[in-house]
Specification:
about 260 residues, mainly alpha, two-stranded antiparallel ribbon, about 5% strand, globular
């Protein structure tokens, strides 16, 4: 899943479509049952999304009848078929389309978008089982989960205002995309490792930033249940994309290639 998705999703999830935007403000950061319920809703949806994405990735990467529809083995590895290319770019299409067609988003509409994006990203991740050993994929996933938990906890509990990170991190994502496009032509292994290292840092920062942004969104919405239903879906989508990108960049360092 291209990191470009993150840039699109960040712009989309500012809640410009009739909902309050999280703004820097002084909020009571003490324990709040409503806030806990809101964040739990986000994390539950995220966890279910990861389960679905993982199951679809396993099927598309390990079931020969399905794998052959999306990828074809070549002398240098695996090439992508037309259906595989459609699956690969479907998340971008869905997110671009939602920016134009979801002018007044509802919780149901955002949930539909969330599961469609999760499903298409999950199906496109089958290639990791073709490139890396199953044990390295599993170990990298658990490392990613542990890192995500720690970073999200930091974003939730820190007293430091992380708002200033937003523009810096988005610019980092844009720079990352440019570097990846350039390296498509250079095919430099060293540059790929540097890009992966920077990607790990950027998406680690985004996990903490987006967690705090969700927390501030809860306070900004002031108990508006309809808006919070929308925010839960967008929040889960944001964290899901962060998780998947962090996982893929970590695979560059931890993934054991198949012989």
């Amino acid at each position: 899943m291209p990191p470009a998705i993150k840039e699109i999703e960040l712009a989309m999830s500012d809640f410009n479509n009739g909902y309050a935007r999280p703004v820097p403000q002084s909020a009571d950061m003490s324990a709040d049952s409503g806030l806990r319920a809101f964040m739990l809703g986000v994390y539950n949806k995220l966890a279910l999304g990861l389960v679905l994405a993982g199951a679809l990735a396993y099927v598309t990467g390990n079931v020969p009848a399905v794998t052959s529809l999306l990828w074809v083995q070549t002398s240098t590895g695996y090439g992508i078929t037309m259906p595989g290319m459609i699956i690969q770019f479907l998340p971008l299409v869905l997110l671009f389309g939602s920016m134009f067609f979801m002018k007044n988003p509802t919780a149901g509409g955002v949930n539909l978008l969330y599961w469609a994006v999760v499903g298409s990203i999950g199906a496109s991740l089958g290639f990791v089982f073709l490139r890396y050993t199953g044990s390295s994929v599993a170990s990298t996933f658990f490392v990613t989960a542990a890192a995500f938990g720690a970073l999200s906890l930091f974003g939730y509990t820190t007293k430091k205002n992380l708002t200033g990170w937003g523009s810096f991190l988005i610019m980092g994502v844009i720079g990352l995309i440019i570097a990846m496009v350039v390296n498509m032509f250079l095919q430099s292994g060293l540059m790929a490792l540097i890009i992966s290292a920077i990607g790990v840092l950027i998406f680690s920062g985004l996990i903490a930033y987006d967690t705090q942004r969700l927390k501030m969104t809860y306070y900004a919405l002031g108990g508006n249940q309809a808006a919070m239903g929308v925010a839960t879906g967008f929040g889960a989508l944001s964290l899901f994309i962060n998780f998947i990108n962090l996982f893929q960049f970590l695979l560059m360092f931890m993934g054991g290639n198949r012989d």
